[in-house]
Design a protein that fits this description.
The protein is of the alpha/beta class and 217 residues long. It is built from 8 helices and 11 strands. The chain has 3 domains: 1-57, Roll (2,3-Dihydroxybiphenyl 1,2-Dioxygenase, domain 1); 61-112, Roll (2,3-Dihydroxybiphenyl 1,2-Dioxygenase, domain 1); 116-216. The chain has helices at 14-24, 68-76, 114-117, 131-142, 146-167, 174-184, 190-199, 204-216; strands at 7-10, 28-32, 36-40, 45-49, 60-64, 81-82, 87-90, 93-99, 105-111, 128-129, 171-172. The strands form 3 sheets. Strands 5, 6, 7, 8 and 9 form a 5-stranded mixed beta sheet that branches. A 4-stranded mixed beta sheet has the order 1-4-3-2, with helices on one face. α4 runs parallel beside α6. The chain is elongated and about 75 Å long. The two termini are 46 Å apart.
Length: 217
């Protein structure tokens, strides 16, 4: 089976469009022939071909920016204008549609994480969790760097729920949560985990018992 590799668009002024995309949007010319130019930015390939009834004539590109305000200023300097107000298709993504030379359309987008929005981590549990267990898990996950948080969340939730199923309780309580974090936290992070557990009011005896249990398993 083949695979999709390139977006194709029909334009009459290939050289001018290519110049704009290369100078302002981070593309480079990957290859050329007598009928088309193929541009690439390391993640996306676009083939600029001669107009035809089959090919679309409008190119729309998602364009990631640090902030929408700064991105808007930079694109306006290149001849783009906003076609609507900022849109918020989700809590974590804001967009600004823009139209530029040669009919190129951009959707500038800025993404946000839960820390920037001041939100607690969505644990995405499948079993019932006690309120105390949920609160502790969310507090501990806040201490994990955002780039590694989803992996830590997944491993810890799965471990805690597996223990709950194994014991037949089908509910994750505070102790199971403590045990799960100790079992899934790398050794070099254990000291800071223990410090955070104590900071959040977990009994020292619970922590020590959980560590011994993990060492025996």
């Amino acid at each position: 089976m083949g695979f999709a590799s390139t977006f194709a668009i029909g334009v009459s002024n290939q050289a001018e469009v290519a110049e704009l995309m290369c100078s302002q949007l981070g593309f480079y010319v990957e290859s050329t022939d007598e009928n088309s130019l193929v541009l690439n930015n390391g993640a996306l390939s676009v083939r600029l071909s001669k107009p035809s009834d089959f090919l679309p004539s409008v190119l729309c590109i998602d364009y990631s920016v640090e902030t929408l305000d700064q991105g808007r200023k930079e694109m306006e300097a290149c001849g783009f204008t906003a076609s609507s107000e900022v849109q918020r298709p989700s809590l974590f993504r804001h967009e600004l549609p823009m139209v530029g030379p040669f009919g190129i359309r951009l959707v500038l987008f800025q993404t946000f994480n839960e820390d920037e929005l001041g939100l607690d981590t969505d644990l995405k549990t499948t079993l019932d969790w006690s309120p105390e267990a949920v609160q502790l898990a969310q507090q501990l996950l806040k201490e994990v760097a955002i780039d590694f948080r989803e992996m830590a969340r997944k491993k810890t939730i799965e471990d805690a729920e597996a223990m709950a199923v194994a014991t037949g309780t089908m509910q994750v309580d505070l102790l199971r949560t403590v045990e799960a974090f100790i079992r899934t936290t790398p050794a070099f992070k254990q000291p800071s985990l223990i410090e955070n557990l104590e900071k959040h009011g977990i009994k020292r005896q619970w922590i020590e018992d959980s560590i011994k249990k993990n060492e025996r398993s």
